[in-house]
Write a structure and sequence with these properties.
By secondary structure, the chain is α/β, with parallel strands linked by helices. 42% of the residues lie in helices and 15% in strands. It has helices at residues 2-21, 25-31, 50-55, 57-66, 79-86, 103-113, 127-135, 149-156, 159-166, 179-185, 235-248, 264-273, 299-304, 324-328, 343-351, 361-370, 374-388, 395-402, and strands at 42-46, 72-76, 93-97, 115-120, 140-145, 169-174, 224-230, 253-258, 278-280, 290-292, 308-311, 332-335, 356-357. The longest helix has 20 residues, at 2-21. The relative contact order is 0.10.
Length: 407
């Protein structure tokens, strides 16, 4: 535990120093568990950022519907996640930044918000937070948790921290079948292991703004493809694929959405080097061959306007991003070989022949050409959506969570 405490102290210093340098004093206070609070009981839910919170929306609303007296405190590690939670616009939801995982900060946070229980909506566990909640006699739960073989080996090197954290959980619903036994082997009580449920399968798109179409002329869904949440090392392959595909379809348009908008300038330079005209979401131009989506929180808008989607993080070893979101929009799916973050989902897609696996620019170009006809795009998109449709809704999960909350 001493090693973890030392590590978290270093992390805390870095986080607080960054907030201080940027003049974000409200962020600094929230990270220390200070600022606003409430004497009214709150159930505390935590998700790392946008993805977890967006996927958990049906669970969040289900909890509120089932318990009219329930108040939710939702935290995230990012300002964008906080904004998304606040955007749920419910009078019984309060959204703040997550406190640092220091013992004294966690205890102060629990007291300030009269926390009645804690639900983790991600795969990362915060030991001091869990121990503080458990020590107060309140339940700790986790849904959508995933533990890869490599991560399990890492946690096993800190047995005191890992076992102490997992032993606090009264319920854990794993994202996939392989994760459950790994959690148990590291200290999760066997009777706390619930059935498998991939939280991200619950994803529902944001409501679109009527008439909103920020793309330049020539970008209609049929002749537009999207490279979603790309990482360094993927963009060049994607642009090479765009070059090859345009030999067959000169009107083809590309929406390129980097996972981290801070990379936008570097990606824009690469687009120019490849000889394409460019427009950016932040700097619109009337016409362009490539549209650079350099903002956060608008992926639903890009999915809705692209009939074919390459899921980023899968051409390089990043584990691949979610296929659920583009599938919800009935997009025809392409992905690379690295899909370990969503193994079960991609296996289902492969079994149903509902996505195209690619490894090179030529592979991508060939797939784009094959999926160019409207009938093919519609067929592939509908199949992806049907394949990833959850087998059950969130009702049983909401009931299981509420059964462990006394007030």
């Amino acid at each position: 535990m001493l090693v973890y405490r030392a590590l978290m102290t270093c992390v805390a210093v870095a986080v607080l120093a960054r907030a201080l340098v940027r003049g974000r004093f409200s962020e600094l206070r929230q990270r220390l568990g200070l600022g606003q609070g409430s004497d009214q009981p709150h159930l505390w839910l935590h998700g790392a950022s946008n993805g977890e919170l967006a996927s958990a929306r049906p669970v969040i609303l289900g909890l509120l519907d089932a318990r009219p007296d329930l108040r939710l405190l939702i935290t995230s590690n990012s300002l964008t996640g906080q904004s998304l939670a606040a955007g749920l616009d419910h009078d019984r939801i309060t959204a703040v930044l997550a406190p640092l995982d220091l013992g004294w900060v966690s205890r102060a946070f629990l007291r300030r918000w009269s926390v009645t229980g804690h639900i983790t909506l991600e795969s990362e566990f915060w030991p001091n937070r869990l121990r503080a909640v458990a020590a107060s006699g309140k339940p700790c739960m986790a849904i959508g948790a995933r533990l890869s073989e490599r991560s399990a080996r890492g946690w096993a090197k800190l047995p005191e921290v890992t076992r102490g954290s997992l032993s606090t959980l009264s319920l854990l619903s794993p994202q996939d079948a392989a994760s459950g036994p790994r959690f148990v082997s590291l200290g999760l009580p066997q009777d706390a292991l619930a059935e498998v449920f991939d939280l991200k399968s619950l994803y529902t798109p944001k409501s679109s703004i009527p008439g909103e179409h920020p793309l330049p002329s020539g970008y209609d869904r049929l002749n537009t493809w999207l490279a979603a949440s790309t990482h360094d090392g993927e963009d060049e392959t994607i642009l090479d694929a765009h070059t090859l595909a345009r030999r067959t379809d000169p009107d083809l348009r590309l929406i390129l959405a980097p996972r981290h908008p801070a990379r936008a300038d570097a990606v824009a330079k690469l687009v120019a080097e490849k000889g394409f005209t460019l427009t950016r979401r932040s700097r619109p131009m009337p016409e362009a061959e490539v549209f650079l989506a350099d903002t956060l929180g608008e992926m639903d808008l890009w999915y809705a306007n692209a009939g074919r989607v390459l899921v980023g993080g899968s051409l390089v070893d990043k584990g691949g991003h979610t296929p659920y979101e583009p599938a919800t929009h009935s997009c025809a799916l392409l992905h690379g070989p690295f899909v370990g973050n969503f193994t079960s989902a991609y296996e289902r897609l492969a079994e149903a022949d509902a996505a195209v696996s690619v490894t090179s620019a030529q592979d991508i170009a060939t797939a784009l050409t094959q999926l160019a006809p409207a009938a093919q795009q519609t067929k592939a998109g509908d199949l992806a959506r049907a394949t990833l449709k959850p087998a059950t809704d969130a009702e049983w999960l909401v009931a299981a969570l509420l059964a462990r909350i006394s007030t």
